[in-house]
């Protein structure tokens, strides 16, 4: 198997995750810009990957849905509304995709594939808003109201507490950023997914490496419970393992934009897992 063809996919995933980790340390605005760029990469390459027609219009819909979702997560002032605009963008994005197919008229080739592929792209970009929502929930929202900050999440770990922002793992106040933790998990998981071996060996390795990384960072910095870190690492590992399996079954995409989109897709989707894991496990 020619693993060189998969190199752009792995590099895109790695760079995307590292950029998210760095941006999360600088705040919501920086992370918003990075996630919008991530949506742009997916929007440009996803229609090519799925082999759909009307690529320009569908790329525009995929990108617009993602940007609206990300902006919504960044500007709302209620915790309950953090993912509201993602739902709205997803609904309207799918509706516009169907409208484009109707406008194209009858008898067009690959209509079903085009519709399903574009809808999948909309799902990916709208779920990317979870990165921004995850950075703001719950302490980011509370910080604006009473100055509590992320300190409410702090749980003492095995190592001395550090507050100098090493590799962007800590937030501006010195507390662990859940978004940065998740991004580092995706980096390690991506590296494990690049091991040139059979899926029977690599897929469990990806899940194990992601989980161990998440728990290890939580123990080192002592900011989050092991349950939260373990669930987050497990979710990221399963996501990356699924994408690796799908990619190897289908073979490397032919076009460079498609390869970049495949690399960016699991990082974008991880956003929704970050946010809802926080909602479920952090009060």
From TrEMBL:
Keywords: Membrane, Transmembrane, Transmembrane helix. The chain crosses the membrane at residues 20-46, 58-76, 82-103, 115-133, 176-195, 202-221, 227-244, 256-276. The keyword Disulfide bond does not apply. The keyword Membrane applies. This is Permease. It comes from Nesterenkonia natronophila.
């Amino acid at each position: 198997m020619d693993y060189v063809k998969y190199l752009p996919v792995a590099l895109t995933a790695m760079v995307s995750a590292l950029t998210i980790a760095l941006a999360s340390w600088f705040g919501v605005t920086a992370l918003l810009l990075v996630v919008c760029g991530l949506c742009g990469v997916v929007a440009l390459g996803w229609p090519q990957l799925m082999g759909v027609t009307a690529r320009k219009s569908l790329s525009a819909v995929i990108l617009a849905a993602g940007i609206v979702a990300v902006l919504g997560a960044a500007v709302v002032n209620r915790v309950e509304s953090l993912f509201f605009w993602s739902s709205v963008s997803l609904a309207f994005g799918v509706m516009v995709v169907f409208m484009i197919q109707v406008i194209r008229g009858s008898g067009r080739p690959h209509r079903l594939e085009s519709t399903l592929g574009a809808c999948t792209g909309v799902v990916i970009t709208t779920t990317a808003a979870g990165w921004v929502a995850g950075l703001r929930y719950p302490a980011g929202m509370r910080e604006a109201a009473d100055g509590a900050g992320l300190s409410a999440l702090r749980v003492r770990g095995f190592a001395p507490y550090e507050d100098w922002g090493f590799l962007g793992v800590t937030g501006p106040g010195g507390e662990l950023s859940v978004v940065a933790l998740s991004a580092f998990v995706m980096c390690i998981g991506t590296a494990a997914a690049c091991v040139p071996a059979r899926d029977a060996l690599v897929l469990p390795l990806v899940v194990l490496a992601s989980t161990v990384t998440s728990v290890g960072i939580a123990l080192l910095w002592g900011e989050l419970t092991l349950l939260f870190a373990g669930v987050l690492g497990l979710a990221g590992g399963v996501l990356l393992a699924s994408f690796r399996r799908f990619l190897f079954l289908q073979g490397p995409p032919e076009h460079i934009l498609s390869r970049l989109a495949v690399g960016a897709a699991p990082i974008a989707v991880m956003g929704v897992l970050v946010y809802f894991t926080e909602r479920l496990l952090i009060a």
